[in-house]
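We include the pair:
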Amino acid sequence: MSVTSRSRIIVGLAVVFCVLTLTATATAGSTVQVQLTGAGGAEYGLGPNYADGEYLMPYYVSVNGGTPVAVICNDFLHTVSIGDHWAATVSNFSDLSLTRFGNAFATQYHEAAWIASQISASSSLADITGAQFAIWKLFSSGTPVVQGEAQWLAMATVAAANNYYGMNFSHWEVLTPLSPTSPQEYMLYVPDLPEPSVAFDLTVALAGFAGVWNLKRRRVPSKASKH
């Protein structure tokens, strides 16, 4: 793929993410229809038990049939295939009681959002991998250990002790499947529509990740997670 083509993809993803926030917002506690439409890429070589690799952030879902939105996966233990659709409950960070892990994991949800917010378009694939597995580790102790994961967890602990350096969590939402067995749970950032600058920064970062992954991945498995 040419540099020009990759640039068009990145810009296109950025525009899509800004538009999709118009359709992604839903009232906390409401039920929405979610469909997994794609994933940014996969990291390989994680050991004999993970030969097919694991998708990393961002994933892409359509909410109520809207334009696909970039989301962060915080759930390592469940399986999703691209094209799957399901009903999910919308939660915000002021009440996580209806999420998969509940209010007892409020700190983990906040730390996961903080870790995701630290990733930028200039982040290396190693940093993205460590951040993604750190997010999974916050919720699932059985998540494999990869290089950089421990450092991200340590930084998140320090951030929590410092009130996340003033980070505003009011824009973060959680999409929790109604089924307790599958599929995965996702987190997303929904900006105030009049002031989309933060969303645009995150958009550029996530779009940049997709460009990196398109260059590096050898093949794309049909599963978003294989467990």
Remarks:
- Confidence is low (pLDDT under 50) at residues 1-24, 194-198, 212-223.
- Strands lie at 31-43, 54-63, 69-73, 85-92, 172-177, 186-189.
- The longest strand covers residues 31-43.
